[in-house]
């Protein structure tokens, strides 16, 4: 009997496609972050955990898991040259993004916050193009800009014709997008020579001397709903840890500029999750925008992305 292993489909053998698959898996995990954060922090009328505790407490839990993982896998210590990039990565994805989003989510609905996330792929691509010496084609930028314009258009449409509300929380969310873009780009760069899993683990561990005491100081002092603890647990284990295993690996394999565009579908995955979790409404218009955005992702994936070469 022929026991030869059947070959994998050719499309998945290509690094760019492998990166996109892993990137999409990371996006699916991250898409639940805002709805789960909303559960954890509650609303203005029914507050739960503080946004600061959710952000720093989830980092402490993830850092504990990371320390165990690093010990089990016998991870080598980071090189001295990697310490600054790791600190920058931590500033973006351990501190900046979680803090800004967790504070903002008490004041805005998950659907509203999810559409703001639509600017993240363009921000990530811009940072990555500068950091990784990549030169996307004009057509690639057109697709990225079109996808971002679609999600902004969705936000304007969903505001009932009054325009995108400039709530202070929106400023926090936009700041969070910038932090995430920097953290993603530097983390992807480190993943070129470090295991992707080790990148986020070391970023969390080196941040622990700050996150642990601050989390203790801001811990909840009153009983909370069980849903708040479930939301916190998800952000700690999945959003802050497991999701980055797939995400950084995908960015490293497929290229940060290209794979980052998969994030364009994240707002709509987040909206779909908010329906059962938070009781928010899904309509045909939302689905229409989702289809249009997904189309720009697949078109943009076919556009050339070049790497600048240095001449010596």
From TrEMBL:
This protein's name = Drug/metabolite transporter (DMT)-like permease
How is this protein positioned relative to the membrane? Multi-pass membrane protein
Q: State which residue ranges cross the membrane.
A: 20-40, 52-71, 83-104, 110-131, 138-156, 168-187, 199-217, 229-248, 260-278, 284-300
Provide the alphabetized UniProt keywords.
Answer: Membrane, Transmembrane, Transmembrane helix
Where is the protein situated, by its record's location annotation? Membrane
The answer on whether this UniProt entry bears the keyword Iron-sulfur reads no
Q: Which family does it belong to?
A: Belongs to the EamA transporter family.
State the signal peptide span: none
The family database entries (Pfam families) matched by this protein are listed as: EamA
Annotated EamA domain ranges read 19-147, 170-299
Do you know which InterPro entries this protein is assigned to? AA-Vitamin_Transporters, EamA_dom, EmrE-like
Organism annotation: Hydrogenophaga laconesensis
């Amino acid at each position: 009997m022929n026991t030869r292993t059947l070959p994998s489909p050719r499309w998945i053998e290509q690094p760019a496609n492998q990166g996109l698959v892993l990137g999409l898996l990371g996006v699916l995990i991250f898409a639940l972050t805002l709805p789960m954060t909303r559960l954890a922090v509650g609303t203005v009328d029914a507050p739960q955990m503080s946004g600061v505790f959710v952000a720093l407490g989830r980092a402490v839990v993830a850092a504990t898991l990371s320390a165990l993982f690093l010990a089990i896998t016998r991870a080598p210590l980071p090189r001295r040259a990697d310490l600054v990039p790791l600190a920058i990565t931590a500033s973006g994805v351990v501190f900046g993004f979680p803090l800004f989003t967790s504070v903002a989510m008490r004041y805005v609905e998950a659907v509203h916050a999810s559409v703001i996330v639509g600017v993240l792929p363009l921000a990530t691509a811009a940072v990555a193009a500068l950091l990784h010496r990549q030169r996307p084609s004009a057509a690639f930028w057109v697709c990225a800009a079109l996808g971002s314009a679609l999600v902004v258009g969705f936000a304007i449409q969903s505001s009932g014709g009054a325009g995108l509300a400039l709530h202070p929380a929106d400023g926090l969310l936009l700041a969070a997008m910038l932090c995430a873009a920097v953290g993603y780009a530097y983390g992807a760069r480190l993943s070129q020579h470090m295991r992707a899993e080790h990148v986020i683990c070391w970023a969390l561990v080196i941040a622990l001397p700050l996150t642990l005491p601050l989390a203790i100081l801001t811990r909840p002092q009153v009983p909370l709903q069980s849903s708040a603890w479930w939301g916190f647990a998800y952000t700690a284990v999945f959003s802050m840890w497991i999701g980055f295993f797939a995400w950084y690996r995908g960015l490293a394999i497929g290229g940060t500029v290209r794979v980052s565009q998969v994030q364009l579908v994240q707002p709509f995955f987040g909206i779909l999750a908010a329906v059962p979790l938070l009781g928010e409404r899904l309509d045909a218009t939302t689905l229409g925008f989702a289809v249009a955005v997904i189309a720009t992702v697949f078109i943009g994936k076919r556009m050339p992305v070049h790497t600048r070469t240095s001449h010596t």
